[in-house]
Amino acid sequence: MSVAVKAGPSTGGGPASAPAPKRRRYDRREVTAAALLLLPSMAIFAVFAFYPLVRTFWLSVHANDLLGLPTRFVGLDQYVEFFSNSELRRITLTTGIFVLLTALPSVVIGVFLALTLQARIRGINVFRTLMSTPFGFSAAATAVVFAVFFNPAVGVFNGILKMVGLDSVNWLTDPTYALPSLAMVCVWSNVGYTLLVASAGLQGIPDELYEAARIDGAGRWTVVRKIVLPLLTPTMFFLVVIMTINSLQTFGEIHILTGGGPNGSTTTLVYGIYQSAFAYGGSNYGLASVQAVVLLLVVTAATVAQFRVLQRKVFYG
Amino acid sequence: MSGLRRALTYAGLTALTAVIVFPLYYAVAGSLMTDRELTTFPPALFPSGVTLQNYVDVLDAIPLVRQYANSIGVALVVVAGVLVTSLLSAYAFVFLRFPFKRTLFALFLLTIMVPGESLIIPNYLTVSNLGLLDTFPALTLPFLAMGFGTFLLRQFFAAFPREIYEAARMDGCTHLRFMFSILTPLSRPALAALAIYAFIATYNKYFWPLLVTRTPEMQTLQIGLSQLRSLEAREPGLILAGVTLAIIPMLILIYFFQRNIIRGLTTGSGK
């Protein structure tokens, strides 16, 4: 029944089938088929991605009543409030510190572990598999296990400190330690992922390069520094961007372990969105949307940077 | 490699692995200990005896079996949805000619770049206005299409020999038949990578299920797990039993399907 439709302009089939300009002519059946095939994805995206995207911007320039219903247009007032209010400005700073404490160590440790897994010994795959364990832990699973570790009275961490003669630490309730403690939890949960990706990157480096360097008398460390790490740069860059985005989006660990406290010391942008919009019955959708827009811009900038750099890399071959 | 050096390598790797695996080890070992053992000083690292009481207790504390079923059910529905929608749209982007292709593909990429947390307020309002709060569709509907899925499959299909497609079409093969009887069987690795990726991402979700579920019966395992946290000082064994149960499916996935997972992870890393 169905007529074979070949891609290309020659299937125009119209009476005046003069060779049409190549790009312009589309086969109507093919276009219809494409529309039908794209429809399911587009319908979902329209409702749950494109509409909310526009709506978030819209909400961020409208004030709202106590129930969260938008009342009147206020322009950039809520942005000004966000950046001038010192408590809210602190959220941006906290987010920055948290990203720094989480993203870089996650990548450095992941790459380091991947390098140790290059050892040519029997059973290395068992080590790799075991080391990827954190990747199997969800945010909630990670958070509750570490909640047990962090317990000031009976937890393992203070137990260890006590054994070596140090004072106990209030890991999650002391404003000095809460953010670094959270970062430590997230670094642990990230290294499974970063080491897997770094390992895949290392496997792309041809063995001959190592051999050649060895023959030239290069030491182990020199090979790593002069050959392996430079060739691994695209992978490491990818990981830094992904980890930055990932830490910007961290929610579960914060919600479960500190609830943004103590004294707001672990309230990041994402947590600020949650608090303004959903916590304590406060439906301040306007202010929450301002934070959502700020988050969106930062994450999108990171992603675009990644696409740019990777495209440049592709040209190198 | 000399014997000494080999021994040192093993020792070093074992030490590193021990540090990383410790939370898993402690979750499993601790789930078999009594709370008295878990709260002694110095911290006990090995169970002196084995008790299953913590598992009994955790099943009492939260409707764990129901929440387990919710999590796995939601994840499977999302996986099925993502596979279908991504397959259809990636096929269109690779094999068909239509206007505004680049613009439409850019829109798909946009959905990858935009963080879900930024859209969570309007999405919550949408689901709430549709009367879907605390229902199964609230947990699945927004995730049935995934820009990343289309992106991943498109990259894979782009390497598919064009001649096979054209020959099949010439022989009168319909788009759907070509897709399901020729393309899909040959794309199993990419589909598997996508399925595993979508499963893990959905099973581990936290923010969205927290917002749209109310009753313990509709909550996913992650939310149930998080509610055990307050028992940390008195009943750590119960928490650890809950964690052990929750991570088993994930550990099976990542230990046995590591190859597929890495394929999914490295898409977009320029490899």
Précis, in short:
The complex is a heterodimer of chains A (317) and B (271). Chain A is mainly alpha-helical. Helices cover 67% and strands 2% of the residues of chain A.
Low-confidence stretches of chain A: 1-17
Mean pLDDT of chain B: 89
The CATH topology of the largest domain in chain B corresponds to: MetI-like fold
Q: What is the ordering of alpha helices and beta strands of chain B?
A: HHHHHHHHHHHHHHH
Total helical elements of chain B: 15
Task: Provide the structure class of chain A.
Answer: mainly alpha
Taking the alpha carbons of the first and last residues of chain A, their distance comes to 46 Å
What number of domains of chain B? 2
The oligomerization state is heterodimer
Number of strands of chain B: 0
Going across the major beta sheet of chain A, what is the strand order?
1-2
> Which band does the percent of strand residues of chain A land in?
under 5%
CATH class of the largest domain in chain A: Mainly Alpha
CATH architecture of the largest domain in chain A: Orthogonal Bundle
Identify the CATH homologous superfamily of the largest domain in chain A. MetI-like
Unreliable parts of chain B: none
CATH superfamily of the largest domain in chain B: MetI-like
β-strand number of chain A:
2
Task: Give the CA-CA distance, first to last residue of chain B.
Answer: 31 Å
